[in-house]
């Protein structure tokens, strides 16, 4: 009887492990990144969007943020009488960014960042390094990891556009939260139809083709600028990575 119990226990455990392996595989095993990355806001920042859906392609989770280029964290800030100075070298993994004074930006090899980050994989590697605290600056030959941090480079944490102005009505977080709420409430199917209302109660807000307001006012919500994509497009890109039926305009 004891032998039979042990045999059943082994089979049960094996079954549990197999079930776990199947579940892990179904979820991508934590290996597939379903987020979308891309140049946004005039190709000066990296947008990072993540959307999850259920079996019916209904949005169950939405997230969006922006990560600054290293130029947003100068070695010495600009003053009324002096120009800002920048760290000569920024590194993470096998990537080395070197500041080019003539181009007024960092380069990876011969590519300025606006060119280098046209590759989504390069965007993802940078965002991951920022999240994990693995971005270093070189000072006097030593690497420092407490400069280019998430709290300095992520707009969620660094106070970027912290105060609303009269034309935009909301600050960065207010706009981001409104956009994410709209996606959670309405999905992404109409994101690429958004236009800014010019009259009525929703004047100044982005509204969809059914006149539903997103509650967001920021310029780049559905504005395509050379070298970058809109926030709406990035959210759609993230959705399309997990949805059975991708969204097209």
What this model shows, in words?
- This protein is of the alpha+beta class and 249 residues long.
- The chain has 6 helices and 11 strands.
- The chain has a 6-stranded antiparallel β-sheet. Strands 1-2-3 form a 3-stranded antiparallel β-sheet, sandwiched between helices. Strands 10-11 form a two-stranded antiparallel ribbon.
- A hairpin with a 2-residue loop joins strand 6 (105-108) and strand 7.
- The radius of gyration is 22 Å and the shape is globular.
- It starts with a helix and ends in a 7-residue tail after the last helix.
In a few lines, what is going on in this structure?
By secondary structure, the protein is an alpha+beta fold. Helix content is 29%, strand content 20%.
Using only C-alpha atoms, the radius of gyration works out to 22 Å
Low-pLDDT stretches? 1-31
Number of helices: 6
What characteristic shape results from the CA principal axes?
Answer: globular
**Strand-and-helix sequence, N→C?**
HEEEEEEEHHEEHHEEH
Distance N to C terminus: 65 Å
* Mean of residue pLDDT values: 89
Main structural class: alpha+beta
Arrangement of strands in the largest sheet? 7-6-5-4-8-9
Biggest beta sheet summary: 6 strands, antiparallel
Instruction: Give the DSSP E fraction (strand runs of 2 or more residues).
Output: 15-25%
Number of strands: 11
Instruction: State the helicity in percent bands.
Output: 25-40%
